[in-house]
Specification:
Blueprint: H1 7-16, E1 20-22, E2 25-27, E3 40-45, H2 58-63, E4 66-75, E5 79-80, H3 84-94, E6 97-103, H4 109-122, E7 136-138, H5 152-166, E8 171-173, H6 176-182, E9 195-198, E10 219-226, E11 237-242, H7 246-252, H8 286-297, H9 310-322, H10 333-339, H11 350-361, H12 374-386, H13 397-408, H14 419-428, E12 432-434, H15 448-456, E13 461-462, E14 473-474, H16 478-489, E15 495-499, E16 516-522, E17 525-526, H17 533-542, E18 547-549, E19 560-563
Parallel strand pairs: 3-4, 4-6, 6-7, 7-8, 8-9, 9-10, 12-15
Antiparallel strand pairs: 1-2, 3-11, 4-5, 10-11, 13-14, 15-16, 16-17, 16-19, 18-19
Helix pairs in contact: 4-5, 8-11, 11-13, 14-15, 14-16
Length: 565
């Protein structure tokens, strides 16, 4: 927390403060316990601790001996810290016990609390999960003044919203000068809250007691000018100590009293992921969305839109710097190795979404909801069985390598990231033509011709507004596009394509996922009227199609349908 009230303005008051009554005893401010005498250390951070592109290396912070952190989430009723999500996620991945704090401003307390709750929920923070410390309310003087429109009723309203909506009692960050100036010297409302107090300067005097709080500090912020490995050195760092044992802090962070710090069940793979696609600026598609979700799991806060733009490149370079890799902004085997996380049933978050993207691209019918439930576990086991892996339902390094390699080529060495390039080849291939109207709808934007043109332009193919899923952009599958080229160039077929993702099909049709095409003319003859449809169907199967339908099947008497997983 960045202080505006300097030590010189209130240190004298701290040193001059007298004793206070506590449980019938007179307790004098301790003057023998220096910060160095407390072994459990942590930091609190905000956007002030970042240079322009300066991500914090939380693994280095942990290695330097710090075991907990608090990240600034919000201030007032309408502001959130731009680095909050990245810092919280980064600390979580590094295994630090972690919490979020709110800087109290001049707006109504309940409105501020709602801003805080909305922001931390978006980051996946509850204050109650293993490794999570309770949220903290920061009450401090700013430029020697109380917050505008400050009232104790506003603070009570803030605490009531947090208690009600989050179901957790916050930590209170404050000090004697604030309570004296803004609360008429009465801190009794904090009697049942954990207190976090600042006191800077030389010597070993601990923070002065908060008047009428009936208890002393539990966390002491003893400097705002610290230097911590992993945090940009040109920035001053708030450093804290916890009064108590590591086991006590673990209890506060819902970890029990065992040794160690917060669990880090999701760990990057140690080895490069061979066979994975190489992604860089202008890459698009499922693999990019996968990488973006994994970057978010590592602490980034970027949109997982499947487009490798400047924000994604910056996030990649930040990760590479943090992991000691060449910061070229390109996701190759070593960077995939730093990104990939082991997830299993019960896991949640961006890494699970990344896995679900890959599973769906390999043919699984699951939701991309970030929750590793039974359906996702079953999809992992199915994939593992198909690839000859141990079918344990856990997505570890070998499963990720198989998924990314499976997605990275069409079986002919063509990267999935080249789907746009393949679409350009298909569009220009002599002997492959495309329908410019639908047999069922009148939507010109989702015809086979419009689909391949849009895919070649990098926009993705558009489904029909009259379809079961409405009008959506879908990436055409690289394997399917490569198969079309092979059918033309190797097998010599001349084909007229009637559908990619457009038209109206069954609810779960692979058409809607860009995995299939329909053909109604082969070598200039109509299917069902002398065209060699059986030979074409056999060729589709040889090229990896797992759903091949044609005459005399119902609904397919005049066309051949070939679909890939």
């Amino acid at each position: 927390m960045k202080k505006t009230t300097k030590t010189a303005s209130w240190a004298g008051a701290l040193l001059a403060s007298g004793g206070m009554l506590f449980a019938g005893l007179t307790v004098l401010p301790a003057d023998a316990a220096s910060p160095a005498s407390f072994s459990v250390k942590g930091v609190d951070t905000s956007h002030h601790n970042h240079s322009k592109d300066g991500a914090i290396d939380w693994n280095r912070v942990r290695s330097s001996g710090h075991v907990f952190m608090f990240a600034k989430a919000t201030e007032g009723a309408d502001w959130s810290d731009p680095w909050f999500i990245r810092d919280l996620h980064g600390a979580r991945q590094a295994g630090l016990m972690h919490g979020a704090y709110h800087f109290y401003g001049r707006t109504p307390g309940a409105d501020q609390a709602r801003n805080f709750v909305k922001t931390v929920r978006a980051a996946g923070y509850t204050g109650k999960r293993a490794g999570e410390l309770p949220p903290a309310l920061d009450l401090e003087l700013k430029n020697q003044k109380c917050p505008g429109n400050f009232s104790t009723s506003g603070v009570k309203a803030f605490l009531n919203v947090i208690n009600t909506q989050m179901g957790v009692r916050p930590i209170i960050y404050t000090n004697k000068p604030f309570v004296d100036a803004c609360m008429n010297g009465d801190g009794s409302m904090f009697a049942s809250y954990v207190l976090w107090q600042p006191r800077y300067g030389s010597g070993s005097t601990e923070p002065a007691a908060v008047p009428r709080a009936g208890q002393g500090w539990k966390i002491w912020q003893y400097t705002e000018t610290g230097t911590v490995s992993g945090i940009p050195s040109e920035k001053n760092v708030d450093v804290n100590v916890y009064r108590g044992s590591l086991a006590g802090l673990r209890q506060l962070a819902h970890l029990g009293s065992g040794g160690g710090t917060a669990p880090a069940p999701q760990q990057p793979t140690a080895s490069p992921v061979t066979g994975a696609p190489v992604l860089k600026a202008q890459s698009r598609g499922t693999d990019v969305a996968t990488a973006q979700e994994l970057l978010n799991a590592a602490g980034a806060a970027i949109k997982a839109d499947g487009v490798f733009g400047p924000a994604t490149a910056a996030a990649v370079r930040s990760l590479q710097n943090a992991k000691g890799l060449q910061a070229d902004g390109i996701i190759g085997p070593r960077t995939w190795g730093a990104l990939v996380l082991t997830v299993k049933e019960g896991s949640r978050g961006s890494a699970v979404k990344a896995l679900q993207h890959q599973l769906k691209a390999s043919g699984a019918r699951i939701d991309t909801d970030g929750v590793f439930g039974r359906a996702t576990a079953a999809a992992v086991r199915n994939f593992q069985n198909a690839k000859g892996l141990q079918a344990d339902g856990i997505a570890g390094p070998r499963t990720w390598s198989a998924l990314l390699a499976d997605r990275s080529s069409s079986g002919t060495g063509v990267p999935v990231g080249n789907a746009v390039a393949l679409a350009k080849q298909v569009l220009k291939a002599p002997g492959i033509t495309f329908a410019r109207t639908h047999s069922e709808t009148r939507h010109s934007g989702s015809t086979a011709y419009a689909n391949i043109v849009d895919m070649a332009a990098g926009r993705g193919a558009l489904t029909s507004p009259q379809s079961h899923i409405g009008a959506k952009r879908v990436q055409l599958n690289a394997r399917m596009l490569q198969a079309l080229l092979t059918l033309r160039n190797k097998y010599g077929y001349r084909l007229h394509i009637t559908e990619f993702v457009g038209g109206v099909h069954s609810k779960n049709s692979r058409h809607y996922r860009g995995l299939s095409f329909d053909v109604n003319e082969i070598n200039g003859r109509h299917v069902g009227n002398g065209a060699p449809h059986r030979a074409l169907m056999a060729a589709c199967s040889q090229l990896g199609a797992t759903e091949v339908i044609g005459p005399p099947s119902a609904g397919h008497k005049t066309h051949v349908h070939c679909a890939w997983k």
